[in-house]
Specification:
The chain is mainly α. The protein has 8 helices and no strands. It has helices at residues 2-25, 33-45, 49-68, 74-92, 103-125, 132-144, 148-165, 172-213.
């Protein structure tokens, strides 16, 4: 069953990365706060957007580990690495649509947000580990006693301020990103989780039946 969860996890991260890459192509419309930061760091300091995604993820993982290591699992590290690599991969292909500065760009970014919501729901349904940002915010929430929602708002606001100060582009979709993504994420996560859990139960039941059918030692 771990193989199915692993495949779902990797596939979900790939879909997420594709969604992020599409949104970055039209980032003048506004993208997710963390991606605004990664793009701004890339434009100011070089490397690549994917590399900065990994670096920022690593910083969050270390911080979360210090605060509460229970939220850090193997999937957390894989999340940071795979997402960063795949973002650079998709951006380097040269097949993603470029910004046209017309209504088409709005369609592109909405498709990107939808893919991000679908991918996030899928890889979280695999239950292999929270992403670096989620692990960080959950650990902050536990230590401060603040709700996860409030911690997310404060954290992403601070990220936006830092990104803006170093030249990041902030526009309308930056602020409505979550309102589009979250319902899609929740829908996909709940349905995918039920399917995975059902197969998990069936697999355990078959495994138990096989053990019961084995001849007992006399």
């Amino acid at each position: 069953m771990i193989y199915i969860r692993s495949l779902l996890f990797v596939f979900g991260l790939m879909v997420c990365s594709l969604g992020i890459s599409l949104a970055i192509k039209v980032d003048y419309l506004g993208i997710h706060p963390w991606d605004v930061l990664n793009v701004a760091l890339f434009e100011q300091l070089g490397l690549s957007i994917g590399a900065w995604s990994i670096i920022v993820g690593a910083i969050l993982i270390v911080t979360a580990f210090i605060l509460d290591k229970s939220y850090i699992k193997i999937g957390t590290f894989l999340n940071a690495m795979i997402m960063g690599v795949m973002i650079d991969f998709f951006l380097s292909l040269g097949i993603l649509p470029e910004a046209t500065y017309t209504w088409i760009d709005v369609v592109i970014i909405i498709v990107g947000i939808i893919l991000l919501g679908i991918g996030g729901g899928l890889y979280n349904a695999a239950k292999i580990g929270a992403g670096p940002r989620d692990g960080f915010m959950l650990s902050i929430s536990d230590k401060t006693g603040l709700s996860v929602g409030l911690v997310r708002i404060i954290t992403e606001l601070l990220v936006l301020i830092i990104a803006w100060l170093i030249g990041g582009t902030i526009f309308i979709f930056t602020f409505i990103f979550t309102f589009i993504q979250s319902p899609i994420f929740q829908f996909v996560y709940l349905h995918a989780s039920r399917i995975v859990d059902r197969y998990d139960e069936q697999w355990k039941a078959r495994k138990f039946q096989r053990r019961q059918s084995l001849p007992r030692a006399k």
